[in-house]
Amino acid sequence: MPGPVQSRLGLEERKQPSSDAQRQEFKAEVQPVMSQVGGDIGWMAAHAPAEKHAAEAGKRDKAYSAFQMALSKIDPTNPAIAQPTIDKVKGAVKALQGAVKASKEAVEKALESWQKREPEFDQWIDRVREMVDWGYDKAAAIQKVVDMIAEKANARKYDEAEKGLVGMLPKVGPLFDDYQKQAKAKEEYDSQLPDLEPARTEMSTCEYAELEEETVQLAELDTRMRDAAEQKDYVTAVELLGQLKQRLSDHEAQRRELDQLRSDYDQARAALDPRLTEASTSQYASLAELDEQIAAQTTQVDQAAEATDYRQAHEQCVALSQLVDDKLARVADLEAKRSEVETARAALEPRLSEASTSQHEELATLDQEIAGLSTQIDESVAAEDYEGALAATGELTVKVDEKLKRKEELDAKEEY
């Protein structure tokens, strides 16, 4: 009970319930929440972006300061004084708890989603590094995107990192497929190119005019192929290599054919030259036109051979051979007929001399005929008309025989 003095001073009326209950109740309600907020923010320190963690930590510190301020306002004698501040702080702390929880859950969701995609990203890191090391021309641009995504992930900006990865995949996938095609094509190119070298060397030394245009085109195709390989476009390089390989094979086949034609020409010309020399030594006026044809044909053969056009040279050589054969045959025929005329004339000459020694007026006409036939024979021989000369020789033989017979008759009459 209050003592007399207290009663006199009225202290018993001012005494209030202890404020420790308000303080303890306030602390009991706020501190667990702040502890949870602190734990969430501590987790975010290790998993959330630094700026997000800093923002939430700043809110927490502000709330804690407000909490401390509210505690300081508690009046042990009058709970009503601090109650509005306490209510405001409790509301703010509850709001902070919800906001931090939502922020943490957002980070957890982003992290969980990223962790599911991270192995795929790691795989792309290795792929892009492989593309860069290989020298793929578009790899540098992809590397920048990969570095940006890695930077976002390292900064714990997992949603931005995943967004970057999702945006990158549709673009980098086809490029990686192209790179793999190029890498595979490079292996094919490198394995096939050495086998092509002998044919390329033969092509570059080809001297046939007939293949000159194709040789130039093959050289241009070879340059295009090597330029594509130098630019690491091995898909195109392999395609051009296939074309070059086929055309070199055709070129080689044509060259072998021309080599054979050259050999055929050389053999034909070697066989022809002695006959050509023989034909040139036999000069008959009646064969002048044929001689001109042979000379013209020989010029064509020589020009074709000089131009390494052995296909044409061989064809012209065959034609020349036919002309030479024709001339030699005609020469042989003319010489045989001339020989026949000369033989017949030689056989007739003694009797012709005998006939010419007898001069009877009665035989004057016959003498004229014999003289005419002799002149005709000489003219036919000069004109290389040996058939005409032989026919005239036959007629002359008849006339000579006739004269000798009549001479004999006339001589017999004179004796009587």
Which secondary structure elements does this structure contain, and how are they paired or packed?
Layout: H1 4-9, H2 11-14, H3 20-47, H4 50-73, H5 83-134, H6 139-154, H7 158-204, H8 212-230, H9 234-281, H10 288-306, H11 310-356, H12 364-382, H13 386-415
Helix pairs in contact: 3-4, 3-5, 4-5, 5-6, 5-7, 6-7, 7-8, 7-9, 8-9, 9-11, 10-11, 11-13, 12-13
Walk me through the structure.
This protein has helices at residues 4-9, 11-14, 20-47, 50-73, 83-134, 139-154, 158-204, 212-230, 234-281, 288-306, 310-356, 364-382, 386-415. It has 416 residues and is mainly alpha-helical. The longest helix has 52 residues, at 83-134.
Summarize the structure.
This protein is mostly helical and 416 residues long.
User: Helical stretch count?
Assistant: 13
Unreliable segments of 5+ consecutive residues: 1-17
Helical residue percent?
over 70%
C-alpha Rg (nearest Å): 63 Å
Q: Biggest β-sheet: count, sense, barrel?
A: none
Structural class: mainly alpha
Which shape, going by the Cα principal axes?
rod-shaped
The helix/strand series, from N terminus to C terminus, equals HHHHHHHHHHHHH
What is the end-to-end distance? Answer: 231 Å
Chain-averaged pLDDT: 89
The quaternary organization reads as single chain
Query: What portion of residues belong to β-strands?
Result: under 5%
Number of strands: 0
